[in-house]
Write a structure and sequence with these properties.
Protein name: Aldose 1-epimerase
Pfam families: Aldose_epim
Order of helices and strands: EEEEEEEEEEEEEEEEEEEEEE
Number of helices: 0
Strand content: over 45%
Number of strands: 22
Helix content: under 10%
InterPro entries: Aldose_1/G6P_1-epimerase, Gal_mutarotase_sf_dom, GH-type_carb-bd
Strand order of the largest sheet: 7-8-9-10-22-18-17-13
Length: 297
């Protein structure tokens, strides 16, 4: 495992080749924008800082969970691979658990690649992290290498730093709330008050829900810091995750597809790739001016 430190006058970040994980992202004052990790910890499964304890990791070749850990293509059922971190699901795919290789980089950027053959999936993944001004630009591309067509998806799993005053807001047309085995229930365009983030509010308690019809922008504001972050993505789905108010983080996860889309009519957001076909997803995290309408900081 190699860790690369990227920096510019505004931001500093550390990226590990293990899982293509981000181990930290700080502003010019050294304050974490994503949750902090131990600078000396590794991110191997079972180690003191496995990828799920990083600051951000990629989700490839799918995001979240698939019911029964099986998919169906053209009437034929296919079992998904087992995960060393989840006994029931191919959780977030295998990309976050594999060693990646650096193929390009500079003082403020790094590009990593992974070739993986895992069950149905045979793919080349590339992730590019780039600091540009007050923004982190990230992009994942996936190219299918297998002979038979296969369904693909991808996403980013950032853990945003938060305190008890942090508020978030984003616009989405509806939500699949979490059900049994952390899988989504039926779609609803009616948002319960604690799940409606069209206006600024604090995320409260356990949250693990997938929003659809996402506008592509989400924001966080930290009044105690007088700081605001904006997340922008070309994804149409946003996963909101928080274990509890005291966790010190909240996850706003842009995904190319809905959670459990493999078992939904039309496979919303998934891409059926033939050999040589490529899909991509991008995300930008930007440090914004603190004062904004509707939220006094």
């Amino acid at each position: 495992m190699t860790v690369y430190t990227l920096s510019n006058p505004h931001l500093r970040m550390r990226v590990s080749t293990q899982g293509a994980c981000v181990l930290g992202l700080e502003d010019e004052h050294g304050r974490p924008l994503l949750r902090g990790t131990n600078p000396d910890a590794s991110c191997n499964p079972g180690a003191s800082c496995y990828p799920g304890e990083s600051a951000l990791f990629p989700m490839v070749p799918l995001a979240n969970r698939v019911a029964g850990n099986r998919i169906e293509l053209w009437g034929e059922a296919h079992g998904l691979p087992e995960s060393p971190l989840d006994p029931d699901f191919f959780l977030h795919g295998d990309g976050w658990l594999q060693p990646w290789q650096r193929v390009a980089g500079s003082a403020s950027s790094v590009t990593l690649q992974l070739t993986s053959q895992c069950g149905l999936f045979h793919y080349l993944a590339e992730i590019d992290y780039r600091l540009q001004g007050v923004s982190l630009l990230a992009r994942i591309s996936l190219t299918h290498l297998g002979e038979a067509p296969c369904l693909y998806g991808a996403g980013f799993h950032p853990f945003f730093w938060r305190d008890e005053q942090t508020k978030i807001r984003f616009l989405a047309s509806g939500v699949w709330q979490e059900g049994l085995e952390h899988l989504p229930t039926d779609w609803s365009s009616r948002l319960a008050p604690h799940l409606d983030f069209r206006q600024w509010q604090r995320p409260q308690g356990w949250l693990n829900h997938c929003y659809g019809g996402w506008h592509g922008t989400a924001e966080l504001v930290h009044p105690t810091r007088r700081q605001r972050l904006k997340v922008v993505s070309d994804a149409s789905f946003l996963m909101l995750y928080q274990p509890d108010d005291a966790s010190g983080f909240v996850c706003l996860e842009p995904q190319s597809h809905a959670a459990n889309a493999h078992h939904m009519a039309g496979h919303p957001g998934l891409r059926l790739l033939q050999r040589g076909d490529t899909m991509s997803i991008a995300m930008t995290i930007t440090l914004m001016p603190a004062l904004i309408d509707g939220c006094q900081v």
